[in-house]
Amino acid sequence: MLDAARSFALNAHGSQKYGDRPYAFHLEAVVSLLSPYGSEAQVIGYLHDVVEDTEVTEDDIRRLFGPRIAECVSLLTDSPGASRAERKAATYARLATVGGHAELALVVKAADRLANVRSCVADQKHGLWEVYRQEHPGFRRAAYRVCLCEPLWVELDALLETSSGDAV
């Protein structure tokens, strides 16, 4: 299923870019971070942006990858809103209620955010790094669960607690 999810996601994202790189760069970075959490987490990692950023629907994901994967992808898809702040506030409110088997989505969300922040640091994207830094307390309150994926959170916290000049 992992190869199918990778192929599906790469096809769905097509020629989309992640900054100056092909979108596959971001997907591979997320999935690499998810390797300790199992193949199901990696499948969700490949699919985490397809509903938000392509023509793929949640029903497509459910039909092709099953209800659990579709539920997690749905949780990872930003809520609608007029601004990033509105979208993130609604998404974080939804993530704060997640429990049980759906917490796998929170692992993927942490890996996605860590991959994004690592890219900001590597590419010296000061403005975007600052956005993530300012969002971090709310994001952490919504998505963090004790002992769920501590190594991801330790690195993410460290990268975002560094002063802007030191991190990027």
TrEMBL record:
One of its GO terms (molecular function) is guanosine-3',5'-bis(diphosphate) 3'-diphosphatase activity. It comes from Candidatus Accumulibacter affinis. It holds the Pfam family HD_4. It comes from the Bacteria. This is Bifunctional (P)ppGpp synthetase/guanosine-3',5'-bis(Diphosphate) 3'-pyrophosphohydrolase. Gene3D superfamilies: Hypothetical protein af1432.
